[in-house]
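Today's session is about reading a structure prediction critically. Students often jump straight to the picture, but the first step is always the sequence itself: look for stretches that repeat, for charged clusters, for runs of hydrophobic residues. Only then move on to the predicted structure, which in these notes is written as discrete structure tokens rather than atom positions. Here is the chain we will use throughout the hour.
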Amino acid sequence: PVPTKRFSICSGGGPGIMEAANKGALEAGGKSIGLNISLPLEQDPNPFQTPDLAFEFHYFFIRKFWFFYLAKAIVVFPGGFGTKDELFELLTLVQTEKTRKYMPIIIYGSAYWKEVVNFEAMVKWGNISLEDLNLFRFVDDVDTAYRYLTQQLTEHYLKDIPARR
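Below is the predicted structure for this chain, in token form.
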């Protein structure tokens, strides 16, 4: 039997790692969602999004809502202000238990992230608790990210789904 629960790739719809995510889904025969944002100087939608699942947003807060609302896991790659805004909003929602579901959060590229955000200093200064560092996991390679995501998604979302034959 074919599982009724499936996962789709969702990206910000732009170039770089977002394009790679959409292209990988397409090459694997899957669908992918692109949550594009209209910006004056950048962010043209990449051509690998499933056309019926390519959306364009004017406001960041609406785009963030849709990222988080449907997500079962998040992988955050190095990025600029928008990436940090999305990451910190998600961490705040999880930290304050405003989300109703478990969501593994992978922060990819520990050298970058530990240089631009000093989470340990936030603990030292009393802005977050030591336990808050367990809200996410740093990952530095694709294989580790894949194993962790597969294990977490299976444990939390696919326990009762029969295996494909």
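Discussion point for the tutorial: The first helix runs from residue 17 to 27.
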